[in-house]
Amino acid sequence: MKNNAKEIRFLKNRSIIKFEGKDFLGEIGIDGRIFKALTLARISVGVISQQAIENGLSILVHENDSEKAVNCLIDEFEAERKSGKVSQIYSINNVSVIGFVTEDFNKVLAELARNNVFPLLLNQNLSEKRVNIVVTSSQDEKAKNIIESEISKKPKTVHLAIIGHGNVGKALINQVLQSSEEIRQRKKIDLKVVAVANSRKIAFNKQGFDHHWNDEVLTAEIPSDVQELIKFSKENQLENLIIVDNTASKDFVHNYHTLAENGFDLVSSNKIFNTLPIEEYRQLRYTLNKNNRRYLYETNVGAGLPLIDTIKLLHLSGENITRIKGVFSGTLSYVFNNFSLREDTFSTIITEALEKGYTEPDPREDLSGNDVARKLLILARELDLINEFNDIHIQNLVPQNLISVSKQEFQSRLGELDQEYQKIKENQKPGHVLRYVGDLHGDLQKERGELDVKLISVPATSALGQLKGSDSFFEIYTESYGEHPIVIMGAGAGAQVTARGVFGDILRVSETK
């Protein structure tokens, strides 16, 4: 009967018998003696493979026969063991065999390797393009799923772990659930949200959460711990893993190395990691490269705008970027766009931005300039500059006496900012408006650039002055474009916009898996 290319042969409960020796495999009769001894012991032999280093054989048997097979071969080759010609005869238990036909075995192997599955044994029939691989039983279902996706038209399953289900995280989960069927049909990718966590607890669902996910999170009892997530992924043999960090946590980012080492690709709207000391920044890139993992963070700057990708492509192409300037914060864009045109107080507009979900959980992250500074530093590092956060000159918009108070107290005392900012507004030149900008400049061909974050006054008729709503605005100056910068402008804040950008990164990682 002709082999069906889509058919997969799957045998569990097997053992590998390893038969190792020195310079004896070329001898006539060794294979025959092995088969004869095992046949007389009524042991069925599966795959037999000669090791590439020519010092042994691997024989597949049912795990119930493994101990008997080892003892049988020890007796058969007693003389060779005493002389040292045969060095070891032992078993590797708890393995499974997967047999399949493929036109491109190297691609299958690459996908298995991407998921940290490395066959213990393989046997190929080149004429029929049939392959048998042996994997540990702890990875057999995962290996089978990967192979099925590669050799058939079955959608590839991608398992998502969402960390943080606040404004952005909640919007993202709902976007994934609403779009999942369309993506399955259009891109042949089956997205499953299998874990949702906050700072206290984590909920799991191997089949993938549905629209009632929040109820399952509320009733979850497992403490939020990365090791619990890794354990869950291994116990359930989940392939194509992506961790999505939608937090603003300074602590969670330190798990990125461990996650990459355990088979997770990373997608993050959290800006913290990319602004850690340069040595940690570079060490993660090394870990990602070593483990063949990806880390996408387009929403770190500009929410859903294609800014980081544009800068990466320009830089990789050899284009000399000479300056990057603009309104980096959708939050502060909203604040100053409205404050410049309306009669409302500064505190009223800050409260309004907070209620709309434009600000960080603590508005001081925006008003302090730290959020803009992080974004500016992230872009500097995309140009291979080695600037650190303390290199940035930041104008903090928060009065000194409110910097260290609690978040609740700060919000209750917002009115204390009104008089100062009303005065700044009134002291501008006629026809000018306020904008809070980031500016990366200096000789960007050196190791470090100049980074400034400050409040400026610009003509209302200028490109910066005409910004509306919460739009972000970026000017990228390059040697080739001269005085005419590349301009990227658009929605720079809001949970839905940011979540859509994160979703885009998820799909980009999924398509390369």
From TrEMBL:
Pathway: Amino-acid biosynthesis; L-threonine biosynthesis; L-threonine from L-aspartate: step 3/5; Amino-acid biosynthesis; L-methionine biosynthesis via de novo pathway; L-homoserine from L-aspartate: step 3/3
Catalytic activity reported: L-homoserine + NADP(+) = L-aspartate 4-semialdehyde + NADPH + H(+)
Domain Homoserine dehydrogenase catalytic residue range list: 306-507
Stored Gene3D superfamilies: Dihydrodipicolinate Reductase, domain 2, NAD(P)-binding Rossmann-like Domain, VC0802-like
Domain Aspartate/homoserine dehydrogenase NAD-binding, residue spans: 164-298
EC class of the enzyme, as a word: oxidoreductase
Any Pfam family the entry gives: Homoserine_dh
Domain Aspartokinase ACT, residue spans: 20-77
InterPro entries named in the record: ACT-like_dom_sf (IPR045865), ACT_Aspartokinase (IPR054352), Asp/hSer_DH_NAD-bd (IPR005106), Bifunc_Aspkin/hSer_DH (IPR011147), HDH_cat (IPR001342), HDH_CS (IPR019811), NAD(P)-bd_dom_sf (IPR036291)
Cofactor field: a metal cation
Keywords: Amino-acid biosynthesis, ATP-binding, Kinase, Lysine biosynthesis, Methionine biosynthesis, NADP, Nucleotide-binding, Oxidoreductase, Threonine biosynthesis, Transferase
UniProt-listed Enzyme Commission number(s): 1.1.1.3
Family (UniProt): Belongs to the homoserine dehydrogenase family.
Name of the protein in question: Homoserine dehydrogenase
